Structure formats: C-alpha cells, structure tokens
Amino acid sequence: xxxxxxxxxxxxxxxxxxxxxxxxxxxxxxxxxxxxxxxxxxxxxxxxxxxxxxxxxxxxxxxxxxxxxxxxxxxx
Length: 76
Prior knowledge:
The protein is mainly α. Helix content is 53%, strand content 0%.
C-alpha cells in the first residue's frame, strides 16, 4: 500500500520522527497500528458481564490525583 500525504503532514511526521530518532515511515506505521489494531487485554474476560463492561470502557490515558478532586484545589 502506498499512501500519499500532504506536505504539511509529511513535515510534521519528519519532525516528530527526527525527535524520536526513528524514520518517518516507522512513526507512521506505529501511529496507524495504535489507531487501528486492538490492544490485547492483560487478562481474558470471564463472562458476558466483563466483556460488556470492557466494551464500553474508554482508555483516558492517566488517572487524576486525589488533589484534583479537592475543593481546596479549585481556589488556588
């Protein structure tokens, strides 16, 4: 498969790839792999309820510290 990208995207890929020390092609493949291939679960769901729960879950990246939910932090 050959994918043609506009010059703006090509420059952004090249810049980020240079920063990471990889080729632009490797960076593009990794980005596509993360976006389109499902990540394996660290465990196998035991029943339909667990499969349903995992299906509706969303990976938000990180969890916020407890201080983020404190009313004291709102007024700083």
